[in-house]
Amino acid sequence: MTSIISTAEAFVREQMLGNDASHDWAHVDRVRNVAVRIAKREQAANPAIDLEIVELAGILHDVGDFKYSGSETAGEEMVVAFLKDQGYAADRAERVAYIVGNLSFRKELGKGAQAHAEPIELQIVQDADRLDAIGAIGVARCLTFGGAKHRTLHDPAIPALVNMTKEQYNGLKNKGTTMNHFPEKLLKLKDLMKTNTGREMAVTRHEFMLQFLDQFYAEWNGAV
Fold this sequence. Notes:
The protein is mainly α. Helix content is 61%, strand content 0%. The protein starts with a helix and ends with a helix.
């Protein structure tokens, strides 16, 4: 492990201390590990993939997260400042910071085809982050975040905003229900994967969510 990686780990562990378990160090570590796994597989077709950039961005991807900071720019600014303070090359620090500032679902809303023109390292970390948002862990994280934000679990009278804009997504904050987050975002992620490896890994996780939702609504309606 290089010194910049271990230093970044220590920095992020401290940054995550106040977060709920949906966005804690364990989440960051899973995303980092999956991102590195994806990068190594994708390198067969694209040897230029920079593994250090991928790993650093995976570790730093939730620093200054909008959901907690409320700032559009805090993540990129904090990451650039941290990396430059460590003597990391300015151009590489900017590459990592760009990934941190542009991988979210919120940022992708409205980008269209432009989202597929982003650097491959961003696409890899984005896929890894999205994989952690679906499947069994994704369900657990969704329920954890909803509870931490005191959201209503489910209310059939509140329709999901399936085709929301970035502005609507930003405005939801604590207003939506936890279960609406599935059609509003989580069920879309399988088809938003950018890498071949990410698409392959998303299939079983997506299927698990569908099974969970079938069971949840059957129990909610007293059918089982």
